[in-house]
């Protein structure tokens, strides 16, 4: 589970909303201005289009304030906006300077829609603008000179390339920061923040498809003695060793996380409690069989655990962890090195 698309979408929303609101404000004011200018020039179709866009900008501004569907509103506004721009380029009354607006397309499209969709939308509208330019000025000897054409083309491609590169690097830094924010620095496992985010996604999937999901809470036994006897560095090494076993043993669709201290939570997707117990026992035996080596000394490790199943034992992460925690403490009381399923009699005896 290495993707961060949902978190990234949430992270991009506030700044995309700010860019959209600025665009809406500017097009409202600009629309009214160009409406007046076009009325004075008796260019009524374009004046009417500018007025409609200004009113539409106002309506969208009100709609996006509390929307849950920002991406849809971005498309619902920018596509008519860019199309109106093309309409202005076609207008016989418009001067060649109107083509300068085309340079705003790649910037706005990338800022508002990200690198992939931004590139597609920019390429489409810039190609339309190039065709309009050609058909409008193909008989104009002045405009069809190689120098102005090369100038316009290179400038347009430069703005497109820089907008795209900017968005790629911005998304990459965002992914890097998200990864750092959602990773436990000692073990490299996911942390509580990521656990919460993935749980919410998986919960929706479980409710939609009716698939099971279990939460396994693991706690190292007598870990204080490891620190006291071998030192804190050895304790850290033991935590890394357990993390390595979790990563190696679990399926790619499961999420092993470190909650803090010597406590781990594993989110087992598409897994009911009885199957989760089998997985947990496999982990428990692997941990027992692989002592951490600190300065050539083996540190024997065992874990106790509790399992709770989504739906049966709770519908949110907090209650599931709390139910698993009750079983974990029961497992500790029963002698440690065992896993118990919530609401059942002791399900495993070490041996
Ligand atoms: N080395 C190391 N130790 C940690 C870390 N986080 C917590 N600990 C130690 O983990 C120990 C946990 O001790 P306890 O809560 O008493 O649990 P325990 O000794 O494992 O006993 P039981 O859970 O009852 O089996 C404490 O000594 C903490 O200092 C860490 O990041 N690194």
From TrEMBL:
Swiss-Prot/TrEMBL keywords: Membrane, Transmembrane, Transmembrane helix
InterPro entries for the chain: Diguanylate_Cyclase, GGDEF_dom, MASE6, Nucleotide_cyclase, Rev_trsase/Diguanyl_cyclase
Q: Which GO terms describe its biological process?
A: cell adhesion involved in single-species biofilm formation; negative regulation of bacterial-type flagellum-dependent cell motility
Q: Which GO terms describe its cellular component?
A: plasma membrane
Q: Where is the GGDEF domain?
A: 211-344
Enzymatic class: transferase
- Care to name a GO molecular-function term for this sequence? diguanylate cyclase activity
**What EC number(s) does its UniProt record assign?**
2.7.7.65
Reaction(s) catalysed (UniProt annotation): 2 GTP = 3',3'-c-di-GMP + 2 diphosphate
TM helices/strands, residue ranges: 18-37, 43-61, 73-90, 119-137, 149-169
Which CDD domains did the record assign? Answer: GGDEF
Under what name is this protein listed? diguanylate cyclase
The cofactors required by this protein are: Mg(2+)
Q: Which NCBIfam families match?
A: GGDEF
């Amino acid at each position: 589970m290495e993707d961060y698309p949902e978190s990234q979408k949430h992270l991009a929303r506030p700044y995309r909303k700010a860019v959209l609101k600025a665009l809406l404000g500017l097009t409202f004011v600009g629309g009214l201005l160009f409406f007046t200018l076009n009325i004075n020039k008796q260019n009524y179709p374009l004046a009417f289009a500018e007025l409609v866009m200004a009113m539409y900008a106002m309506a969208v501004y009100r709609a996006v304030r509390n929307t849950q569907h920002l991406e849809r509103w971005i498309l619902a506004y920018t596509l008519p906006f860019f199309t109106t721009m093309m309409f202005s380029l076609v207008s016989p009354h418009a001067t060649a300077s109107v083509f300068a607006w085309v340079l705003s397309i790649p910037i706005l499209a990338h800022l508002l829609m990200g690198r992939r969709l931004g590139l597609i939308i920019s390429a489409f509208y810039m190609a339309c603008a190039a065709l309009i330019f050609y058909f409008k000025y193909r008989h104009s000897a002045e405009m069809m000179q190689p120098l102005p054409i090369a100038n316009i083309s290179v400038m347009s491609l430069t703005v497109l390339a820089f907008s795209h590169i900017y968005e790629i690097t911005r998304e990459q830094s965002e992914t890097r920061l998200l990864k750092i924010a959602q990773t436990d620095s000692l073990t490299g496992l996911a942390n509580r923040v990521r656990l919460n985010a993935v749980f919410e996604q998986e919960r929706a999937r479980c409710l939609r498809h009716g698939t099971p999901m279990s939460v396994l809470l693991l706690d190292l036994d007598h870990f204080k003695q490891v620190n006291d006897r071998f030192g804190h560095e050895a304790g850290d090494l033991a935590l890394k060793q357990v993390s390595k076993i979790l990563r190696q043993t679990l399926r790619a669709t499961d999420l092993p996380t470190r909650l803090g201290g010597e406590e781990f939570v594993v989110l087992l997707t598409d897994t009911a409690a009885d199957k989760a117990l089998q997985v947990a026992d496999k982990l428990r035996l692997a941990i027992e069989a692989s002592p951490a080596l600190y300065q050539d000394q083996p540190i024997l490790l065992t874990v106790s655990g509790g399992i709770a199943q989504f739906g049966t034992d709770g519908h949110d992460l907090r209650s599931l962890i709390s139910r698993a925690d009750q079983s974990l403490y029961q497992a500790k009381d029963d002698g440690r090195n065992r896993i118990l399923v919530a609401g059942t009699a002791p399900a495993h005896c070490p041996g």
